[in-house]
Amino acid sequence: MIPFELAEPASLAEAIKLLDPEDSSVRPIAGGTALMLMMKAGVFRPARLVSLRAIKALTAVETRPDGALAIGAMTPLSVLERSAAMRVHAPVVTRTLRTLSNVRVRNVATIGGHLAHADPHMDLPPVLIALGAHIAVAGPAGERTIPVENLFAGYFETVLRRDELITAVVVPAQGSRRAAYLKCTTRAVHDWPALGVAVSLDHDGASGRAAKIVISAATEKPVRLPGAEAALGSGDLDDAALRRAGDAAAAEAETISDGQGSAAYKRQLVRVYVRRALSAALDRTGVRN
């Protein structure tokens, strides 16, 4: 690696001032699990890295008065995995984290960095989209919120400006909603998935409403499938309804080919795994939110 400057600001305001919106070689670094690999491979050669580790305000996990759970962007994934508040609020996140990479990565990687990296194979983005989560973002112009659904612009791309930082991830109260996440890996369970499917829906025992169906890994970015959601309908969620949703998802998804499989193979995975994920959310497989 070539020499670079490492800045370690103690406050969010100081960190933002150290970023340069015109220079792509100046970047923030959170856990660094992905960025360090890119640097070692020579894919990225920074002039300056702005470490966020000393900013203690970005590590809190707290329940807000409206019932939402706010997670500081610098919260390590392993801390979130063990969080009692997270387990009660949205246990689908806890379950997802157990097979996200390995414990050594989860001990270092942060939720803010996980999202900002925008790798379409990441596990949490589709889950957070299905839960209706949004991020809080800070920059020179002030603060703004972005639904996680709108964060990703393409393959390894987000809508964040170079001088903006994710400060928190906010997961709204889920009420009676149920959720599930399933992934298909071609090797070990913690490996990059060929497909990830997250679903959530209101449920009253026999029917579902306001379903959200989100896929990742098989596509250039995490995407909702409104056609599959509409095919599911709001009536009885019997096996025929789940099959319709799976078929509609396979027809709607714009899958891509990569090292985890061909586009055609992934389209068939979408058909099967959307149906399985909906069944899991309905607790027909013993797994539920």
Describe the structure.
The chain is an alpha+beta fold and 289 residues long. It folds into 3 domains: 5-50, 2-Layer Sandwich (Uridine Diphospho-n-acetylenolpyruvylglucosamine Reductase, domain 2), CATH 3.30.43; 58-171, Uridine Diphospho-n-acetylenolpyruvylglucosamine Reductase, domain 3 (2-Layer Sandwich), CATH 3.30.465.10; 178-281, Enolase-like, domain 1, CATH 3.30.390.50. It has helices spanning 12-18, 35-40, 77-82, 84-89, 91-97, 103-108, 111-117, 124-130, 226-232, 239-252, 263-281, and strands spanning 5-7, 26-29, 48-51, 61-63, 69-72, 134-139, 142-147, 152-154, 157-158, 165-171, 178-185, 193-203, 208-216, 223-224.
In short:
Helices cover 32% and strands 25% of the residues. The chain is built from eleven helices and 14 strands. Strand 8 and strand 9 form a beta hairpin.
What tags apply to this protein structure?
289 residues, alpha+beta, Uridine Diphospho-n-acetylenolpyruvylglucosamine Reductase, domain 2, Uridine Diphospho-n-acetylenolpyruvylglucosamine Reductase, domain 3, 3 domains, five-stranded antiparallel β-sheet, four-stranded antiparallel β-sheet, 32% helix
List the helices and strands and how they pair.
Elements: E1 5-7, H1 12-18, E2 26-29, H2 35-40, E3 48-51, E4 61-63, E5 69-72, H3 77-82, H4 84-89, H5 91-97, H6 103-108, H7 111-117, H8 124-130, E6 134-139, E7 142-147, E8 152-154, E9 157-158, E10 165-171, E11 178-185, E12 193-203, E13 208-216, E14 223-224, H9 226-232, H10 239-252, H11 263-281
Parallel strand pairs: 1-3, 2-3
Antiparallel strand pairs: 4-5, 5-10, 6-7, 6-10, 8-9, 11-12, 12-13, 13-14
